UniProtKB/TrEMBL annotation:
PANTHER family membership: PAAI THIOESTERASE, THIOESTERASE SUPERFAMILY MEMBER-RELATED
Keywords: Hydrolase
Domain Thioesterase: 43-119
Protein name listed in UniProt: HotDog domain-containing protein
InterPro entries: ACOT13 (IPR039298), HotDog_dom_sf (IPR029069), PAAI_dom (IPR003736), Thioestr_dom (IPR006683)
Species, as recorded: Dichotomopilus funicola
Family: Belongs to the thioesterase PaaI family.
Coiled-coil parts of chain: none
Organism superkingdom: Eukaryota
One Pfam family from the record: 4HBT
Keyword Hydrolase: yes
Keyword rRNA processing listed: no
GO molecular function: fatty acyl-CoA hydrolase activity
Length: 151
């Protein structure tokens, strides 16, 4: 049985509409403008998109501690509370590094819709022992553009 699949979503397309709006040590705020590739057959944001954002957000929260390498996922959980929106809507998220140990990092990621209703919450545990041992603290390269959070 032959199946014709549509074009595959490339990784850079997934995050093309992702924007970090604020970052400080241990906390990263971001938003995703929802596109068709982020949705399911009901034309609302796909649960897999949110799960991927938990993974990405947790990694960003670890990176915000000053690490270039962020380890590997050992556990990821998502609780879906309500629909996160449709194409054209913006999903807002906050990722927090709750604890950074010598071997494991624990993160929490929360998501809100355009009315600031809680949409989903996720937890993400990362094995970071090798990343911490091999990573030097990250600093922004001299002359690199840095957003100030203002539009």
């Amino acid at each position: 049985m032959a199946t014709k699949l549509g074009p595959k979503l490339k990784p850079h397309q997934f995050v093309r509409t992702l924007r970090v709006t604020k970052a400080q040590e241990g906390v990263v705020d971001f938003e995703l403008k929802i596109e068709k590739d982020h949705t399911n057959r009901l034309k609302i944001i796909h649960g897999g998109t949110i799960a991927s954002l938990v993974d990405l957000g947790g990694s960003l929260a670890v990176a915000s501690q000053g690490y270039y390498a962020t380890g590997v996922t050992t556990d990821l959980n998502v609780t879906y509370i309500s629909s996160g929106g449709k194409v054209g809507d913006t999903l807002t998220g906050t990722a927090v590094c709750d604890r950074m140990g010598k071997t494991l990092a624990y993160t929490t990621v929360m998501f809100w819709d355009k009315q600031m209703n809680l949409v989903a919450r996720g937890s993400h545990t990362k094995f970071v022992a090798q990343a911490v041992a091999s990573s030097t603290p990250f600093t922004v390269p001299e002359g690199a553009p840095v957003a100030d959070g203002e539009e």
